[in-house]
Amino acid sequence: MKIHTPLDVPEASKQTYEENYKAITHDVGRLMLFAGDQKIEHLNDDFYGKGIPAEDNDPEHLFKIASQAKIGVFASQLGLIARYGADYKDIPYLVKMNSKSHLIGKDQRDPLSAAWYGVSQVMELKKNAGLNILGIGYTLYLGSDFEPQMLSEAARLIYEAHRHGLLSVVWCYPRGKAVPNEKDAHLIAGAAATAAVLGSDFIKVNPPSQDGKSDASLLQEATQAAGRSGVVCAGGSSATAETFLQGLYDQIHTGGTIGNATGRNIHQKPLGEAVRFANSIFAVTVENKSVKEAMKIYQG
């Protein structure tokens, strides 16, 4: 695996950056990101209700999964990590630097998700608490009226993260009144290229679709446009295990992505099942297993 260490990583932080990159991708260059940032993004919609186990309503459920499953990194907000991190120090963390709820709809105002804190605060927690923090994440809504503010924040945060040897993941979603089709493949490719220009190491996008149907080949434009920045796809709404794993396999082997960022498809399950499913996702993403092999892991 060749690591393209960006030049904004100073010489004193180069070894840290490369060690973090190897850790987050398990030495193969592929990323399995367990997303635990939806407590604000989706409020309680994804954690409480019909078909969702009662234990998912407790934030610690996320940390239990992340501590027991095979993952590359667990993404959550700084406050939640600070609250539970003492009991889960070995989890590889990625701090989500901004978040917003879904209460204000697109018909009311274009989306804005401003940064809550700076990289210095992340580094302070990492040092003082001895946590295994490997990177930062930022959501950018391309096409929003507030795009300039978010672009500027993301650029500064990525630069600061690299100064300390941390990795960066940009959630890059075209969204707002100027965006007629958020799933357009050409637009998603532009979003991936934008995040690459910002200097992000990894880029999370929604899988594109055409005429309402997903097709992994539609990702090829985005993965090429991202260049040396790795593209991963959002897990999306709940799907059957086999459907999800086949889609992931196709995204990697046909679309050219280097992994996934999955939340509700993992945590909306009882602990044992959630761990097995996370391990099956890891098997396809990192261990290069087939869907059939991954399903055996999920089925136990």
UniProtKB/TrEMBL annotation:
InterPro entries: Aldolase_TIM, DeoC/FbaB/LacD_aldolase, DeoC/FbaB_aldolase, FbaB-like
Keyword Lyase carried by entry: yes
Family statement drawn from the similarity comment of this UniProt entry: Belongs to the DeoC/FbaB aldolase family. FbaB subfamily.
Origin organism lineage: Bacteria, Candidatus Roizmaniibacteriota
Residues in the signal sequence: none
Species assigned in the record: Candidatus Roizmanbacteria bacterium CG11_big_fil_rev_8_21_14_0_20_36_8
GO molecular function, one term: fructose-bisphosphate aldolase activity
Any matching Pfam family: DeoC
Active site: 173, 204
Record carries keyword Lyase: yes
NCBIfam families xref list: PRK06852.1
Protein's name according to its UniProt entry: fructose-bisphosphate aldolase
